[in-house]
Amino acid sequence: MWQKPLFHLSIGRRVFKPSLIPTLGFILLLPVLLRLGVWQLDRAEEKRQLNSALELKSKQAPVPLDEAIALKTPDMTRIISDGTPVSDVTLVIDNQTRDGRLGYEIYGLWQPSGGQQPILVSRGWLPRKDFYEKVPEIPAFETQQLEGSLYFSKGANAVVASNAVWQEYDGVWLLGQFDFQTLAEKVEKMGYDSAPFIIRMQPDTQSKFVRQWALVASPPEKHIAYAIQWFAMAFALVMLFIILNLKRVKHNESTNS
Protein backbone atom coordinates (compact mmCIF):
# COMPACT_ATOMS: atom_id res chain seq x y z
CA MET A 1 0.00 0.00 0.00
CA TRP A 2 2.68 2.48 1.05
CA GLN A 3 4.81 1.75 -1.99
CA LYS A 4 1.97 1.75 -4.50
CA PRO A 5 2.00 4.87 -6.73
CA LEU A 6 -0.84 7.30 -6.14
CA PHE A 7 -1.07 8.04 -9.85
CA HIS A 8 0.84 7.84 -13.13
CA LEU A 9 1.72 10.83 -15.27
CA SER A 10 3.56 10.23 -18.53
CA ILE A 11 6.23 12.80 -19.39
CA GLY A 12 7.95 11.87 -22.63
CA ARG A 13 9.81 8.61 -22.11
CA ARG A 14 9.38 8.83 -18.35
CA VAL A 15 6.49 8.43 -15.96
CA PHE A 16 5.93 10.39 -12.77
CA LYS A 17 4.48 8.05 -10.14
CA PRO A 18 4.89 9.22 -6.52
CA SER A 19 3.98 6.93 -3.65
CA LEU A 20 2.09 7.92 -0.50
CA ILE A 21 4.81 8.49 2.12
CA PRO A 22 7.12 10.72 -0.02
CA THR A 23 4.09 12.69 -1.17
CA LEU A 24 2.87 13.27 2.39
CA GLY A 25 6.36 14.38 3.44
CA PHE A 26 6.52 16.75 0.47
CA ILE A 27 3.08 18.21 1.15
CA LEU A 28 3.91 18.80 4.82
CA LEU A 29 7.43 20.17 4.40
CA LEU A 30 7.07 22.47 1.38
CA PRO A 31 4.62 24.95 2.99
CA VAL A 32 6.86 25.15 6.06
CA LEU A 33 9.90 26.09 3.98
CA LEU A 34 7.92 28.65 1.96
CA ARG A 35 6.40 30.14 5.11
CA LEU A 36 9.84 30.51 6.70
CA GLY A 37 11.06 32.32 3.59
CA VAL A 38 8.09 34.69 3.62
CA TRP A 39 8.58 35.28 7.35
CA GLN A 40 12.19 36.32 6.77
CA LEU A 41 11.05 38.74 4.04
CA ASP A 42 8.55 40.21 6.52
CA ARG A 43 11.35 40.55 9.07
CA ALA A 44 13.49 42.32 6.47
CA GLU A 45 10.71 44.81 5.83
CA GLU A 46 10.30 45.38 9.58
CA LYS A 47 14.03 46.08 9.85
CA ARG A 48 13.84 48.53 6.90
CA GLN A 49 11.06 50.43 8.63
CA LEU A 50 12.93 50.35 11.94
CA ASN A 51 16.11 51.57 10.26
CA SER A 52 14.23 54.45 8.66
CA ALA A 53 12.71 55.44 12.01
CA LEU A 54 16.06 55.23 13.80
CA GLU A 55 17.86 57.19 11.07
CA LEU A 56 15.25 59.92 11.40
CA LYS A 57 15.65 59.84 15.17
CA SER A 58 19.44 60.07 14.91
CA LYS A 59 19.16 63.29 12.88
CA GLN A 60 16.99 65.06 15.43
CA ALA A 61 18.50 67.64 17.76
CA PRO A 62 19.68 66.28 21.13
CA VAL A 63 17.42 66.75 24.14
CA PRO A 64 18.34 66.93 27.84
CA LEU A 65 18.90 63.53 29.43
CA ASP A 66 15.94 63.71 31.82
CA GLU A 67 13.57 64.58 28.96
CA ALA A 68 14.85 61.67 26.87
CA ILE A 69 14.41 59.15 29.70
CA ALA A 70 10.79 60.30 30.16
CA LEU A 71 9.92 59.49 26.54
CA LYS A 72 7.77 56.47 25.73
CA THR A 73 10.53 55.06 23.49
CA PRO A 74 13.83 56.61 24.63
CA ASP A 75 16.01 54.03 22.86
CA MET A 76 18.34 55.67 20.30
CA THR A 77 17.27 59.17 21.33
CA ARG A 78 20.05 61.75 21.02
CA ILE A 79 20.79 63.37 24.36
CA ILE A 80 22.95 66.01 25.96
CA SER A 81 23.94 65.80 29.60
CA ASP A 82 25.90 67.93 32.03
CA GLY A 83 27.96 66.08 34.60
CA THR A 84 31.37 64.58 35.28
CA PRO A 85 33.14 61.32 34.35
CA VAL A 86 33.82 58.83 37.15
CA SER A 87 37.59 58.72 37.01
CA ASP A 88 38.16 55.29 38.58
CA VAL A 89 36.02 53.30 36.10
CA THR A 90 37.51 52.31 32.75
CA LEU A 91 36.36 49.09 31.12
CA VAL A 92 38.02 47.72 27.99
CA ILE A 93 36.34 45.12 25.80
CA ASP A 94 38.86 43.17 23.73
CA ASN A 95 38.39 41.43 20.36
CA GLN A 96 36.17 44.10 18.80
CA THR A 97 36.56 44.52 15.02
CA ARG A 98 36.02 47.48 12.72
CA ASP A 99 36.58 47.22 8.96
CA GLY A 100 38.54 44.01 9.44
CA ARG A 101 40.85 45.47 12.12
CA LEU A 102 41.05 44.13 15.65
CA GLY A 103 40.69 46.52 18.54
CA TYR A 104 38.88 47.48 21.73
CA GLU A 105 35.65 49.15 22.76
CA ILE A 106 36.19 51.51 25.68
CA TYR A 107 33.60 52.14 28.39
CA GLY A 108 33.57 54.81 31.05
CA LEU A 109 31.06 55.87 33.69
CA TRP A 110 29.24 59.20 33.60
CA GLN A 111 27.72 60.93 36.62
CA PRO A 112 24.99 63.31 35.45
CA SER A 113 24.34 66.50 37.35
CA GLY A 114 21.26 66.46 39.55
CA GLY A 115 21.84 63.21 41.43
CA GLN A 116 20.74 60.79 38.72
CA GLN A 117 22.18 57.28 38.50
CA PRO A 118 25.62 57.02 36.90
CA ILE A 119 25.49 55.79 33.32
CA LEU A 120 27.83 53.52 31.42
CA VAL A 121 29.24 55.30 28.37
CA SER A 122 30.68 53.71 25.25
CA ARG A 123 33.44 56.11 24.33
CA GLY A 124 34.12 54.29 21.06
CA TRP A 125 36.60 51.93 19.45
CA LEU A 126 40.40 52.03 19.45
CA PRO A 127 42.62 49.85 17.20
CA ARG A 128 45.03 47.26 18.54
CA LYS A 129 48.62 48.25 17.78
CA ASP A 130 50.11 44.76 17.82
CA PHE A 131 49.56 41.23 19.06
CA TYR A 132 51.35 41.82 22.35
CA GLU A 133 49.33 44.85 23.40
CA LYS A 134 47.17 44.11 26.46
CA VAL A 135 45.27 47.39 26.75
CA PRO A 136 45.47 50.44 24.48
CA GLU A 137 46.55 53.94 25.35
CA ILE A 138 43.24 55.48 26.37
CA PRO A 139 42.71 59.25 26.12
CA ALA A 140 41.56 60.83 29.37
CA PHE A 141 37.81 61.05 29.87
CA GLU A 142 37.59 64.77 30.54
CA THR A 143 34.42 66.64 29.70
CA GLN A 144 31.70 68.49 31.55
CA GLN A 145 29.05 67.92 28.89
CA LEU A 146 28.29 64.67 27.12
CA GLU A 147 26.46 64.25 23.83
CA GLY A 148 25.41 60.89 22.46
CA SER A 149 22.54 58.44 22.01
CA LEU A 150 20.75 56.25 24.50
CA TYR A 151 20.97 52.53 23.93
CA PHE A 152 18.95 49.94 25.82
CA SER A 153 20.14 46.34 25.93
CA LYS A 154 18.20 43.95 23.72
CA GLY A 155 18.73 41.07 26.14
CA ALA A 156 21.40 39.50 28.31
CA ASN A 157 23.70 36.72 27.11
CA ALA A 158 23.82 34.16 29.90
CA VAL A 159 26.69 32.20 28.30
CA VAL A 160 28.88 35.31 28.04
CA ALA A 161 27.97 36.43 31.56
CA SER A 162 28.82 33.05 33.09
CA ASN A 163 32.22 32.98 31.34
CA ALA A 164 33.23 36.59 31.95
CA VAL A 165 36.81 36.84 33.24
CA TRP A 166 38.05 40.32 34.07
CA GLN A 167 41.75 41.23 34.14
CA GLU A 168 43.14 44.40 35.66
CA TYR A 169 46.00 46.41 34.14
CA ASP A 170 46.97 49.59 36.01
CA GLY A 171 43.41 50.37 37.07
CA VAL A 172 41.90 49.44 33.70
CA TRP A 173 39.65 46.39 33.56
CA LEU A 174 39.86 44.16 30.47
CA LEU A 175 37.28 41.63 29.29
CA GLY A 176 37.37 39.40 26.20
CA GLN A 177 33.64 39.30 25.46
CA PHE A 178 30.63 40.89 27.07
CA ASP A 179 27.03 41.90 27.23
CA PHE A 180 25.71 45.01 28.96
CA GLN A 181 24.55 43.07 32.00
CA THR A 182 28.15 41.93 32.52
CA LEU A 183 29.32 45.56 32.44
CA ALA A 184 26.61 46.65 34.87
CA GLU A 185 27.51 43.85 37.27
CA LYS A 186 31.17 44.88 37.14
CA VAL A 187 30.53 48.53 37.99
CA GLU A 188 28.13 47.41 40.73
CA LYS A 189 31.00 45.47 42.31
CA MET A 190 33.03 48.67 42.07
CA GLY A 191 30.36 50.47 44.10
CA TYR A 192 28.18 52.06 41.39
CA ASP A 193 24.56 51.24 40.65
CA SER A 194 24.38 52.18 36.96
CA ALA A 195 21.30 53.04 34.92
CA PRO A 196 19.61 50.29 32.82
CA PHE A 197 20.96 51.74 29.56
CA ILE A 198 24.18 53.13 28.14
CA ILE A 199 25.15 56.25 26.23
CA ARG A 200 26.95 55.88 22.94
CA MET A 201 29.00 59.01 22.45
CA GLN A 202 28.44 61.16 19.41
CA PRO A 203 30.96 60.72 16.54
CA ASP A 204 33.71 63.33 16.60
CA THR A 205 36.25 63.75 13.81
CA GLN A 206 38.71 65.28 16.30
CA SER A 207 38.58 62.25 18.59
CA LYS A 208 40.91 59.25 18.48
CA PHE A 209 37.89 57.03 19.02
CA VAL A 210 35.97 55.48 16.13
CA ARG A 211 32.23 55.72 16.77
CA GLN A 212 30.28 53.77 14.18
CA TRP A 213 27.11 52.51 15.78
CA ALA A 214 24.88 50.00 13.99
CA LEU A 215 21.24 51.05 14.20
CA VAL A 216 20.05 47.44 14.43
CA ALA A 217 22.01 44.32 15.27
CA SER A 218 20.56 42.35 12.36
CA PRO A 219 20.25 44.39 9.11
CA PRO A 220 17.51 43.75 6.50
CA GLU A 221 20.06 42.17 4.13
CA LYS A 222 20.68 39.39 6.63
CA HIS A 223 17.00 38.44 6.68
CA ILE A 224 16.85 38.54 2.88
CA ALA A 225 19.79 36.12 2.78
CA TYR A 226 17.94 33.81 5.16
CA ALA A 227 14.81 34.05 2.98
CA ILE A 228 16.81 33.07 -0.10
CA GLN A 229 18.15 30.05 1.77
CA TRP A 230 14.64 28.89 2.74
CA PHE A 231 13.32 29.39 -0.79
CA ALA A 232 16.34 27.54 -2.18
CA MET A 233 15.60 24.63 0.14
CA ALA A 234 11.97 24.65 -1.02
CA PHE A 235 13.12 24.58 -4.65
CA ALA A 236 15.55 21.77 -3.89
CA LEU A 237 12.74 19.82 -2.21
CA VAL A 238 10.51 20.18 -5.29
CA MET A 239 13.31 19.08 -7.61
CA LEU A 240 14.21 16.14 -5.37
CA PHE A 241 10.57 15.05 -5.17
CA ILE A 242 10.25 15.13 -8.95
CA ILE A 243 13.56 13.40 -9.69
CA LEU A 244 13.03 10.59 -7.18
CA ASN A 245 9.55 9.87 -8.47
CA LEU A 246 10.22 10.26 -12.20
CA LYS A 247 10.98 6.83 -13.59
CA ARG A 248 12.13 5.76 -17.04
CA VAL A 249 9.52 3.64 -18.83
CA LYS A 250 10.75 0.15 -19.57
CA HIS A 251 10.03 -1.32 -23.00
CA ASN A 252 7.85 -4.07 -21.52
CA GLU A 253 6.05 -1.73 -19.09
CA SER A 254 2.78 -0.02 -19.86
CA THR A 255 2.21 3.44 -18.43
CA ASN A 256 -1.44 2.58 -18.07
CA SER A 257 -0.82 -0.28 -15.65
Automatic annotation (TrEMBL):
<dbReference type="InterPro" id="IPR002994">
    <property type="entry name" value="Surf1/Shy1"/>
</dbReference>
<keyword id="KW-0472">Membrane</keyword>
<dbReference type="Pfam" id="PF02104">
    <property type="entry name" value="SURF1"/>
</dbReference>
<protein>
    <recommendedName>
        <fullName>SURF1-like protein</fullName>
    </recommendedName>
</protein>
<dbReference type="InterPro" id="IPR045214">
    <property type="entry name" value="Surf1/Surf4"/>
</dbReference>
<keyword id="KW-0812">Transmembrane</keyword>
<feature type="transmembrane region" description="Helical">
    <location>
        <begin position="20"/>
        <end position="38"/>
    </location>
</feature>
<comment type="similarity">
    <text>Belongs to the SURF1 family.</text>
</comment>
<keyword id="KW-1003">Cell membrane</keyword>
<keyword id="KW-1133">Transmembrane helix</keyword>
<feature type="transmembrane region" description="Helical">
    <location>
        <begin position="224"/>
        <end position="244"/>
    </location>
</feature>
